[in-house]
Design goal:
single chain, binds zinc ion, alpha+beta, 17% strand, elongated
Length: 178
């Protein structure tokens, strides 16, 4: 069994004002090398899939209802340490390499395929499909490098607070007393 995550909540008014957040990052507890402003969304649990009975209208309705449920907090001056910045850069670089590498393999094999002999076309089709799949998969490291994942925070479902999962001790210690 996994231990329950340690969760703290910060009032949304607090994180919306610059200068209220600790000088150490929430993930590693290291000194902040940079402060960032970003929009932090709430997590909306996916609704049960009613694809079988659904039609286009109900799907559109579901998406718009989901959009109204997502609450956003505009976080000001969140501390990021060098390790945070490095892991962010790593995931974004990986995502870019996958996206453009996949694009190159996909487009390249189509271009080469137009001039290729019959026997090689099949192999090129495999490369094209592989490149296309890698392009789609590049969304995962892109998401992993997002600020919400890096700092381990999200907005609460009602939008009144920000939830931080497993914050560092240095971060928690510097929060204003509640
Ligand atoms: Zn950090």
């Amino acid at each position: 069994m996994q231990p329950l995550p340690n969760v703290i909540t910060l009032p949304a008014e607090l994180v919306r004002q610059p200068g209220n957040l600790p000088a150490h990052c929430s993930r590693h507890g290291r000194p902040a090398a940079k402060r960032v402003d970003f929009a932090l969304q709430s997590k909306v649990p996916p609704e049960p899939n009613r694809a079988l009975s659904g039609n286009v209208l109900s799907t559109a309705d579901r998406i718009s209802r989901r959009a109204t449920k997502v609450k956003v907090t505009h976080v000001k001056g969140w501390p990021l340490c060098r390790t945070c910045q490095r892991s962010r850069a790593f995931w974004f670089t990986l995502s870019l390499v996958m996206f453009f590498g996949g694009l190159l393999a996909f487009a390249g094999s189509l271009i080469v395929g137009a001039f290729a002999a019959k026997g090689t076309v099949q192999a090129l089709a495999g490369v094209a499909i592989g490149g296309f799949v890698i392009m789609i998969l590049s969304a995962f490291p892109f998401h992993r490098g997002g600020l919400a994942r890096i700092v381990g925070a999200s907005t609460s479902a009602d939008g009144t607070s920000v939830i931080v999962v497993n914050p560092s001790e240095a971060f928690t210690a510097e929060l204003p007393p509640r």
